[in-house]
Amino acid sequence: MAAPESGDGNNGAARMVTLISSDNTRFEVEAAAASLSQTLQLTILDGGGGGGDGIPLPNVDSATLSKVLEYCIKHAPAAANGGAPNATAVDRAELERFDNEFVNIDQSVLYSLIMAAHNLEIEGLQSLVAKKVADMIKGKSPMEIRRTLGFPDPTPEEQAEMNAHMLEYGWAYE
Amino acid sequence: MAPSEELTDDLIGEFLLRLSPEDPACLLCASLVCKRWRRILADPAFRRRHRALHRTPPVVGFIRIVSRRIPYCSRFVPINPAFRPAARDLPGCWLVVDCRRGRALFVTPATGPGAEGNPRSAPVSTRRCSAPPPRKAATAAAIPSA
């Protein structure tokens, strides 16, 4: 999916940095967008990632990184405004719509994003993805949760334990 | 691919943290998914973070005194219909005398005053302790947990 370009939100000429995924794909993004990652922010402040160099990210593959950057590019202008005190309701609604669509993805991508957001310390993305998984669990029985999240079938021991708990706590599901 | 296989405890904790305390049954269900989730949820550090994230704990219900005379009768009345401990689960012949910060103090003629339980989990865990028999006017107070 092509990442939408953001036109403004930077002071002066936009400084670009290069990020290199684990499978050696190079991504060129505005420093402001990459700086949403606390981990990258330090390197960028030290002047890294510019020119021919580029910052290697051995834990993030290109598919995940492109998704992460799509989020960063979209959220960078609001973040640059310091939580966007002058953002209009329309801007906020647009970001919310983007977020909802953004996490409407395959589960394996979701897990890759959780790990990438954690490694790169992108707080907003971490929280967005965690909320999505929590929503997937909400209102489901333990067995349904296992199925939804692709757990293997419970072992007889696990099943017996679950049954015993259901006997004791069954009232909570009535 | 199960998240438990590739995600660390910290990352699983991240999404379990987002389960709302407004629906306690949801946290209970999550604790039954597997041993690992139960261990994460039962960790005091997780409970502290969950409280910090969701601020004020929600009122899940209240305890209504049905009869003040022996045999006493108190009943848990839930606010959220999704969280509905059966009325029979509140011990019979218990009179609630105080309630504070999620803990309730009951008095019962069978064991003397001072049977303490947690109204949010009264059917699950109750703690009893014996106390000297009350004089004319007994007073009791619920001691909030730390």
Protein traits:
heterodimer, A: 174 residues, mainly alpha, Potassium Channel Kv1.1, Chain A, three-stranded mixed beta sheet, 8 helices, 55% helix, elongated, disordered N terminus, B: 146 residues, alpha+beta, 2 domains, four-stranded antiparallel beta sheet, two-stranded antiparallel sheet, 5 helices, 6 strands, 23% strand
Task: Report on the architecture of this protein.
The complex is a heterodimer of chains A (174) and B (146). In chain A, 55% of the residues lie in helices and 7% in strands. Chain A is built from 8 helices and 3 strands, in the order ββααβαααααα. Chain A has helices at residues 31-34, 38-45, 62-80, 89-102, 107-120, 123-137, 142-148, 156-169; strands at residues 16-20, 26-30, 55-56. A 3-stranded mixed β-sheet of chain A has the order 2-1-3. In chain A, helix 3 (62-80) packs across helix 5 and helix 5 (107-120) runs antiparallel to helix 6 (123-137). Residues 1-11 of chain A have low confidence and may be disordered. Chain B is an alpha+beta fold and 146 residues long. Chain B has 2 domains: 3-54, no CATH class; 61-128, no CATH class. Chain B has helices at residues 3-6, 9-17, 24-31, 35-42, 44-54; strands at residues 61-67, 73-78, 95-100, 103-108, 112-117, 126-128. Chain B has a 4-stranded antiparallel β-sheet with strand order 3-4-5-6, with no helix packed on it. In chain B, strands 1-2 form a two-stranded antiparallel sheet. The chains are: A mainly alpha (174), B alpha+beta (146).
Whole-angstrom Rg of chain B: 18 Å
| Total beta strands of chain B | 6
Order of helices and strands of chain B: HHHHHEEEEEE
Percent of residues in helices of chain B:
25-40%
Radius of gyration of chain A: 20 Å
Structural class of chain B: alpha+beta
Strand content of chain B: 15-25%
Count of runs of 4 or more consecutive helical residues of chain B: 5
- The total tally of domains of chain B equals 2
Shape of chain B: elongated
The CATH homologous superfamily of the domain at 62-138 in chain A is called: Potassium Channel Kv1.1, Chain A
Biggest beta sheet summary of chain B? 4 strands, antiparallel
Distance between the termini of chain B: 40 Å
Largest interface: A-B, 37 and 33 residues
**Number of helical regions of chain A:** 8
Biggest sheet statistics of chain A: 3 strands, mixed
CATH architecture of the domain at 62-138 in chain A: 2-Layer Sandwich
**What is the β-strand count of chain A?**
3
